[in-house]
Structure formats: structure tokens, C-alpha cells
């Protein structure tokens, strides 16, 4: 389905969890918001998160040291866990639940929610709520990972401090009824902690130990902690590197950029200038499956009848936009 640059497709009714919800997805930049004048609120460190993040990265470093002595099966299993958890974020929390850029059947939503718990990046509801605020108030106080506060803050620092009050204030005004009406989303939210313990830690560790006799230490540190930490950093690079480094062919007035390295590691999510310009496009890119496993996955799901209605932008609209607001760094087509 081809879309114009307007978001009128979001006025359609969508089926979610058996309920019909009004899908007014609030992911368009709001230029009427003005940041409050005067001194910023004090930065309040959350020591629990700082300690846990440090321990995770030390554990992942130990996993990296163990990696050369892992069996081929364990390395392959680590890649499988990376892919499933990454899809739970990219095809799930991001393209489906945050942006409603395609429709997914119940079995696909269950798979994506399981992958999302394996990714342990906050539950889908919280992730999508924060992500909609990120698009609507990008690079302002109301953006949870405001990249104008520097690389470290946008990357991981924002998870180590209390949120700016404007994030919560603006977030509370967002329309989230589509998420509340999705039974899979709300089930995952209710059972989030247990699902993370099982899917992010126990399953990745148990499979190599039980099926091919890998040591528990190797199974914990490689497909468990190392895979989790690398996947987190690949995700965070979209907020840090892809908001700071790269070209802006579609809109030179915004910070998000096209970053092929991030696109590769985040299985297709590094075409960030395009994505912030056209947030409803299911491919998050002009170039289909290029460096974009997630788009290939959604195409496959559509082919199998498990997904429908992928939304995209016509070539003419893209070219017109490049001419109107791009920086002239990249030719389309
Ligand atoms: C993680 C998330 O890593 C990563 C997300 C990345 C997003 C990337 C996007 C890029 C594009 C997509 C690319 C995908 C690429 C994937 C590649 C894969 C290879 N609106 O939160 P609290 C309310 S998580 C409305 O405690 P504090 C909230 O409901 C990693 N309301 O704020 C609550 O209300 P009530 C693991 C909001 O105290 C109250 O405010 N997790 C909003 O400031 C307090 O909420 C972690 O490391 C909102 N937006 O604490 C830490 N926000 O009381 C998890 C909040 O009524 N987080 N509220 O219930 C935390 O510990 C805390 O949130 C905090 C802030 C310390 C960061
Ligand atoms: Zn997005
Ligand atoms: Zn962004």
C-alpha cells in the first residue's frame, strides 16, 4: 500500500487483540511545544541502574573472553537469540506497536512479544509510550533520550537518571488506547518480570547446557549476558550515533541521520533521517531490505499471511521531500 506524506491512514480502524481501537498514533514531531525557560531541574542519579548496568557490561566482557572457546552450536544459538530478541524490538515494539506501520496477526504478535521479553528493554507498552514521546518531542526536554544532551546521555545515561518532568507530563497526554486494547501487549506488561527472567536469562542459558552439554558458565555469559549487552548497545546506538553522525538526505532541519553501521547492527534501524521524516513506513528506509533484516522479516510475514497492510511512501513523495527539505547529500532511486 502506498501512502501520501500525510498520515491519514492512521484514521483507519485497526483490529487489536480482538478489540477495535482508534489508532491515532502520536509519532509526528510537534513544533508547538516550547521548552520551559530558566534553570533545568537537577540531575538525579539512579545508583541501582548505574550498578546493574556496570555489572552487566563486566559480565558481557567476561563473555567476550570466553567466546573463542565456545562450541559452534553455542555461537549459532547466540546469534539466534540475538535475532529473535532484536526482532521483538524492531518488528515488534518499534514498527508494529510504536508506529502501527503494519498489522500483525495474533500468532505473530505473540512471537514478537516473546522476542521482546527476551530483549529486556522495558515492556512493550512502556517502550512504545517512550518512543512516541521521542518522535513527538525529539531533541527537547520532553524527549526521554534527548540527543542534544550528548552522546552518553542519549546512549545509556538516560537510563541512569530520573526523567525530565516534561517527558512524563507530555507522555501522560499521549493517545495510547491502541496499546491498552491489545491483549498481547497488556498480558506481557502484567507478567513482564517473570517473562524476562525466563526468556532473557533462563532459556538462552538452558538450551546449550541441556541439548549439547555446554558448561553453565559459558551458557550464562555468552548467549545470556554478552548477547543481551551487545543487543542493548546496538539499540542505544540508534539514539546516540544515528542522532549525531551521518547524512540528512530527507530533512536537514532535524538531527536524526542515515548511519549504515547502525543500520547493520540494529538489523535495519539506522536509516534514522528517513525514519523521523516518514515514521509510518514499515521499512524505516527508502531502500527496502538493504541492510534491513527486519523489513525482510515483515515481508516474509506478509507473504505467509501473518502480517498485512505494510505502509510505505511513494517514490514521488520521497523525491519531492528530498528536493524540498534534504541537504542534497544523497540522490534517491
Ligand atoms: C532499554 C530501553 O534499554 C531502550 C529503548 C531504546 C529506544 C530506541 C529507539 C530507537 C528506534 C528503534 C530502534 C530499535 C533498534 C533495536 C535493535 C536491536 C538489535 N509518559 O520510568 P519512571 C511515568 S531498557 C508517561 O520510574 P523515573 C511512569 O508511568 C533497559 N508517563 O521514571 C511512572 O508513573 P506512575 C533495562 C511516564 O523515576 C512515573 O512516570 N531497563 C513516562 O524518572 C515514573 O516512571 C533499565 O535499564 C512517559 N514517557 O525513572 C532501566 N515515563 O508512578 C529502566 C515515565 O504513575 N528504567 N512515566 O506509575 C528505569 O529504571 C526508570 O525508568 C528511570 C527513570 C530510572 C530511567
Ligand atoms: Zn521510531
Ligand atoms: Zn530517533
UniProtKB/TrEMBL annotation:
GO biological process, one term: monounsaturated fatty acid biosynthetic process
GO molecular function: iron ion binding; palmitoyl-CoA 9-desaturase activity; stearoyl-CoA 9-desaturase activity
Matching InterPro entries: Acyl-CoA_DS, FA_desaturase_dom, FADS-1_CS
Subcellular location: Endoplasmic reticulum membrane
Enzyme class: oxidoreductase
Known cofactor(s): Fe(2+)
Domain of life: Eukaryota
One Gene Ontology cellular component: endoplasmic reticulum membrane
EC number: 1.14.19.1
Bilayer topology annotation: Multi-pass membrane protein
UniProt keyword Chaperone present: no
Main location: endoplasmic reticulum
Transmembrane segments: 45-68, 74-93, 192-212, 218-238
Protein name: stearoyl-CoA 9-desaturase
Organism field: Eleginops maclovinus (Patagonian blennie)
